[in-house]
């Protein structure tokens, strides 16, 4: 389910662009709305989807809410997905678990 939320969030070009902006800066809804031909409520809806997928976090400071990229969540989700679809991932994961159990 969580993987579905991430891919649903990433399916939208504006949301991918928002993530690109947030990859370098912590921005408010107003900051983001100025960079798109969208209203602040439309940006807020996109941010809500990204937040529900765990891809962004928000922090309130006074009357402003700032958003930032949750890098770990994005990287871990995409890496996990790549390992699941990679044909060699299964054997490598089993070998890794065996190494962990044996203490090597």
From TrEMBL:
The keyword Transit peptide does not apply. One of its GO terms (molecular function) is DNA-binding transcription factor activity. InterPro entries: ArsR-like_HTH, HTH_ArsR_DNA-bd_dom, HTH_MetalResp_TranReg, WH-like_DNA-bd_sf, WH_DNA-bd_sf. The keyword Cell cycle does not apply. Residues 1-89 form the HTH arsR-type domain. It holds the Pfam family HTH_5. Keywords: DNA-binding, Transcription, Transcription regulation. PROSITE patterns: HTH_ARSR_2 (PS50987). This is Transcriptional repressor SdpR. It comes from Duganella phyllosphaerae. The lineage of its organism: Bacteria, Pseudomonadati, Pseudomonadota, Betaproteobacteria, Burkholderiales.
